[in-house]
Amino acid sequence: MTDPQPRLLAWRVEIYDIVCIVFAATRDKAKWIAVRGYWDAFGRRQWPRPTARRAEVYDNSPRRLDPPQAWNEDYLEAYR
Fold first, then answer.
1. Distance between alpha carbon 73 and the CA centroid of its chain, in Å?
2. Which pTM value belongs to this model?
């Protein structure tokens, strides 16, 4: 039987010089969430080229259960 809710993992996503933490089941989903946040903040001028790598230290953050969004790493440090 498959798990109805995939496990959300922490990802450190970089878009240009902006770094954020995103909780998503896959690397591609994490990139997409970060791009949406980037567009919300700066407008849809172009398609950015995000990079994502795992940020295991945040895997158990209580913020992983919030609606998908990009989090500032300093903000999440308070919840570790």
1. 10
2. 0.88
Half-sphere exposure of 30 toward its Cβ, with a 13 Å CA cutoff?
A: 26
Residue of 16, 33, 36 whose CA lies nearest to 24: 33
Which of 58, 51, 54, 53 lies closest to 74, judged by CA? 58
Model confidence over 1-42: pLDDT tens digits? 555 667 899 999 999 999 999 999 999 999 999 999 999 998
Long-range contacts of 14-19 (CB under 8 A, 24+ apart): 14/50, 14/51, 14/52, 15/48, 15/49, 15/50, 16/48, 19/73
